UniProtKB/TrEMBL annotation:
The chain crosses the membrane at residues 12-33, 69-98, 110-135, 141-158, 185-209, 242-263. PANTHER family: ABC TRANSPORTER PERMEASE PROTEIN MG189-RELATED, ABC TRANSPORTER PERMEASE PROTEIN MG189-RELATED-RELATED. Its main location: membrane. It is a multi-pass membrane protein. The lineage of its organism: Bacteria, Bacillati, Bacillota, Bacilli, Bacillales. One of its GO terms (cellular component) is plasma membrane. The keyword Isomerase does not apply. Residues 73-263 form the ABC transmembrane type-1 domain. It comes from Lederbergia lenta (Bacillus lentus). This is Binding-protein-dependent transporters inner membrane component.
Amino acid sequence: MKEVGEKKIPKILLYVFITLSTLISIFPFYWMFVIGSNTTNAINKFPPVVIPGANFIENAKLVFERIDFFGAILNSLIISSAITLSVLFFCSIAGFAFSKLEFKGRDGLFIFLLATMMIPPQLGLIPNFMIVSALGWLDDVRAVIVPGMVSAFGVFWMRQFISSAVPYELIEASRIDGCSNFRTYWNIVIPAVRPGLATLGIVTFMGAWNDFLWPLIVLKDKSAHTIQIALRTLNDVYFTDYSMILAGTFMATIPILIVFLLFSKQFIAGITDGAVKS
């Protein structure tokens, strides 16, 4: 009986820790809803309100009146989806080449790729803007999609994942069967690294959805605004309606939660895959 009790205590502590961690993670989202469902006057009270109010629908209506909320959501969805799909394709095929193909200068190119991750992205704003402007892509979603179609981190992530998930023997067997490199990549590598793709897809989608600086620079037309830029325009010069802004922010966060819930199982598998391999 003592041994059984000793085994139960760590599990109880683990469940308590997981519960507390979950509550701490959910609290900011809950707090957004609390502020978004109250008035700004109620928010400024001390102690602050901790119970949702009855003004969420009114605040949401104000958001819809001030900005083209659904148009901005659509723009963000198009941009984020396009960037995510292109990153998954180009990064996975580059990761396959760096991990399983032999070619001259492979290691040097990979080291150079890793070195680019140390360069702050802000340093590329001016040259990227000059290129986009010369192409005539200002106020066009292509100005945001094309620069984000591939990422150094994505190539590194997929290279490491493919190296551990796909043995060389499987690649050699496909070559003996007459498969080309692309067919090997598409029919053998892709099914084996789906957890890694799901993890990279969620991280990329969230990054593209929350991106603010670059879209703010190249998308000046209101019809091309992403949801992050549109929410920024809710701020007034002399008065800031925090309840309205947080109501809009709460609604803008829902698509990210939906994407995470749809791919959460694959995301967890991708994160833990390396830990369970012998």
